[in-house]
Design a protein that fits this description.
Strand order of the largest sheet of chain A: 5-8-4-1-2-3-9
Number of helices of chain A: 9
Shape of chain B: globular
Largest sheet of chain A: 7 strands, parallel
CATH architecture of chain B: 3-Layer(aba) Sandwich
Strand content of chain B: 25-35%
Bound molecules: flavin-adenine dinucleotide
Distance between the termini of chain A: 47 Å
Oligomer: heterodimer
Number of strands of chain B: 15
Number of domains of chain B: 1
Helix content of chain B: 25-40%
Number of strands of chain A: 15
Number of domains of chain A: 2
């Protein structure tokens, strides 16, 4: 049996693609990567290093059309006889994986954070209640789909480049017309980021974010914010993390001037290490944090920026 | 425009999360249910705004038991015209989506809206599954929806950016922040909701693809280590040597 991994490749290959291939490889069967669009074959071949035995690329399908992608993956499943499909739990997967679940009559684990356990069935661990607890999802169907939460597994290089084959997945006509795509340049995407610097209402106004951006830049981190900050328009909506925003699980989350309300923590408590910086020693964030600094952000953050600069300089 | 809005119940965001029956069931003791915020704030309100500008009808649908009629009345009080409850426990996304799709197929709606995800199971599955069952395009995580006749222009979140797409009705979309603003029901709405039609439909026999077999709580955090605000070099050293994250 083999496992198909769907890879979003229109912006090149990201870390999440390597994680998904590594994950599928660890499930123990032959791994075939499937993608659509115009990605360079030499780039796609790198998926072999993480364990793919080949890559099938359909260049006729629209990489923004979930119906077409669903059909291409279904064709690849039937032509290879695969019984499992793995996605990285990104925006494409959130549209395509549920469709594929219906089409293949395959149970879907959305947002898996562990490899499947096969004793007494087939089950994966997921976050539930916005990260406040974990659940074990048992998949009862013959075919199975797993959508893997980013940052749940470390990519591992185990081999060398693999072959890339052109594939016709009979995608049919596209019903979605893309009018425009805007991507902010040079920023690190929040769900994939390993380090995140986040700030809240304690910063008093949007004009004070310069030091947060400086800190993020020195660390090579993405920036995030609490909900009220996005609501008042101090920061863009896509930076809003929490129960009603983006849920993230970076290696390091630095929270500056954020109280640590339960709805905020729900989106970030999967982070491996949390640093809280707050003037209020009673702020709830200190209960969820690993390291705490009781102090005024306007004093502490510039000092932290200097300390990181010094660290970077001595490590280069 | 005939619009169907799928709503789900979700525990109030401040609910204590605990499990019973040997960690196999969510402990509902003392839990207050609300309309899942994405369904209420974004999907329902945008549907009402469309109806208010171009006319039409907004139906809400939920798969749930009699206790869930409280959240149905809330959605009706906000302004939906009528409601449908499919009488079953929504334990599996495929089961739930297929029940709704079966109803939607019979009534042929122009637009089917869901929230981006529920805040308890966070699966983001039901909208896409309904779209596949109905063979319709699906615009996931839409933050804006405008209509011009039968042509819809939607914005959606993509990794780190925004995409603008165009589709023709009928279609399915899941709604995220930006789509609309929360509405608080007024007294007139609450009174009117009592007499708005609520149809209860018996469950169709549909298999479940998945089930939750057990739950666990995260390990308790060890105490937070406090760092002197004058000594940020120490924090950086700890992040490097102890936590090993930089
Ligand atoms: C249904 C629902 C869903 C929600 N979803 C989310 C969500 O997804 N994400 C989210 O973030 N919130 C969410 N909230 C809101 C949440 O309850 C909190 O109101 C919000 O997180 C508070 O944001 P904050 O910490 O930035 O602001 P505040 O609560 O105002 O906290 C500001 C903090 O800054 C500190 N401070 C002040 N000055 C300084 C200084 N100079 N230096 C350092 N620290 C300082 C203060 O001590 C305080 O702790 C939700 C609420 C509800 C009801």
């Amino acid at each position: 049996m083999s496992t198909i991994v769907y890879i979003s490749s229109n912006n090149g290959l990201g870390k999440s693609a390597f994680e998904a291939i590594t994950y599928a490889k660890k499930m123990g069967e032959d791994v075939i990567a499937v993608t659509v669009g115009n990605a360079d074959s030499n780039v796609l071949a790198e998926l072999g290093q993480y364990g793919a035995s080949k890559v099938l690329v359909d260049r006729n399908a629209n990489s923004d059309d979930d119906q077409q992608i669903t059909k291409v993956i279904a064709s690849a499943v039937s032509s290879t006889g695969a019984n499992k499909v793995v996605f990285s739990h990104d925006l494409i997967a959130k549209a395509v994986a549920p469709r594929l679940s219906v089409r293949l009559k395959a149970g879907l684990v959305a947002g898996a954070i562990s490899l499947p356990s096969t004793d007494g069935g087939f089950s994966c661990k997921v976050n539930v209640f916005s990260g406040k607890a974990f659940g074990n999802v048992n998949v009862k169907t013959e075919n199975k789909i797993i959508s893997l939460l980013p940052n749940s597994i470390q990519p591992e290089v185990t081999g060398s480049n693999c072959s890339v084959e052109e594939f016709n997945g009979n995608a049919g006509e596209s019903k979605v017309k893309v009018l425009s795509t805007k991507k902010p340049e040079g920023e690190i995407s929040l769900p994939e980021a390993e380090l995140v610097v986040s700030a809240g209402r304690g910063l008093k106004g949007p004009e004070n974010w310069g030091m947060i951006e400086d800190l993020a830049k020195e660390l090579g981190a993405a920036t995030a914010c609490s909900r009220p900050v996005a609501d008042i328009g101090w920061r863009p909506h896509h930076e809003h993390v929490g129960q009603t925003g983006v849920a993230i699980r970076p290696n390091l989350y630095i929270a500056v001037g954020i109280s640590g309300a339960i709805q905020h923590l729900a989106g970030v408590n999967g982070s491996k290490v949390i640093v809280a910086i707050n003037t209020d020693a009673e702020a709830p964030f200190f209960k969820a944090a690993d390291y705490g600094v009781i102090g005024d952000a306007f004093d502490v953050v510039p000092k932290l920026v200097e300390a990181v600069k010094k660290f970077n300089a001595s490590n280069n | 425009m005939k619009i169907l809005v799928c709503i789900s119940k979700a525990p109030d965001t401040t609910s204590k999360i605990a499990f019973s029956e040997n960690n196999t069931k969510f402990d509902e003791n003392g839990v207050q249910y609300i309309v899942n915020p994405y369904d209420e704030w974004y999907a329902l309100v945008r549907a009402l705004e469309i109806k208010e500008t171009i006319g039409g009808n907004v139906t809400i649908i939920t798969v749930g038991n009699t206790a869930d009629e409280a959240i149905i009345r809330k959605a009706l009080a906000i302004g939906a015209d009528d409601a449908v409850r499919i009488d079953a426990e929504p334990n599996d996304a495929y089961f739930t989506a297929s029940q709704i799709a079966k109803y939607a197929k019979e009534k042929s709606f122009d637009i089917v809206l869901t929230g981006k995800e529920t805040i308890n199971y966070n699966g983001s599955q039901v909208g896409g599954m309904i779209a596949e069952e109905l063979d319709l395009p699906f615009i996931s995580l839409a933050t804006k929806l405008d209509l011009n006749g039968t042509t819809a222009t939607l914005e959606r979140e993509i990794v780190g950016g925004v995409q603008v797409v165009e589709v023709s009705t009928p279609f399915v979309a899941s709604c995220a922040k930006g789509m609309a603003e929360q509405r608080i029901p007024n007294m007139r709405g609450i009174m009117a909701a009592r007499t708005k039609p609520l149809t209860v439909i018996p469950v169709s026999s549909i298999e479940e693809f998945t089930s939750y077999t057990s739950y666990t709580m995260p390990d308790a955090k060890s105490a937070c280590k406090m760092i002197n605000p004058e000594n940020m070099d120490e924090l950086v050293a700890l992040l490097h040597n102890e936590a090993k994250v930089i």
